[in-house]
Amino acid sequence: MVSFRSGIAHEVSGGTFGNASKAQTKVTALEPQWEIVSIGLNADETLLGVFSNNQYGCFVLVYNILALCVDVPGEAIPLCSVRVGNTASKGVAFEWNPALADMFAASDTDRTLSVAKVDMQNPSKYSILGEKKLEAIISEISWSPKGKQLVAGDANGKIFQLKPEIEVE
Q1: What are the pLDDT digits (tens) for 35-58?
Q2: What is each CA distance from 72 to 17, 24, 76, 127, 152, in whole angstroms?
Q3: What radius of gyration do the chain's Cα atoms show?
């Protein structure tokens, strides 16, 4: 992952490359065997979730967004790593809760849907609020605007309305 100041992106998109080649960047390296599936910022934009696969399964790596800043020295390391499911499956869908900055949902190819909550007082800790193996792979996840429910769509075309504890509404 490469971080840079947003002003550089505006220069490049505006057609002027000016100092873009001299831009200060910060590279956050994942191990070579990691494959990124999806990335996303939480509701208050303090955490970055990187949904990724390796040979052991799929994980959400949670980073403090400030640690990725080009002005912060040192390597950015994940605050925590949340496993989705418990097999060597691949990640499919990932979505932060839009209202509760500490919560996200993710699914894998082994048909597992998980909802996790990061402890904002101690971000190295997290809890799994709900986890369930469903009939088919969950390919899409969306939260209600208030973050009290989520909707999951599976590969068979079924849509489920769920609470974060993975209880069907």
Answers
A1: 999 999 999 999 999 999 999 999
A2: 25, 12, 9, 29, 37
A3: 17
Residue positions counted in the chain: 169
Decide: helix, strand or coil at residue 93.
Answer: strand
For residue 67, the SS3 value is helix
Closest CA to 123 of 65, 40, 58, 62: 62
Residues 75 and 21 in one domain: no
pTM, two decimal places: 0.84
> Which residues form the domain of 9?
1-30
Task: Assess whether 64 and 129 both reside in one domain.
Answer: yes
pLDDT tens readout for residues 135-146: 999 999 999 999
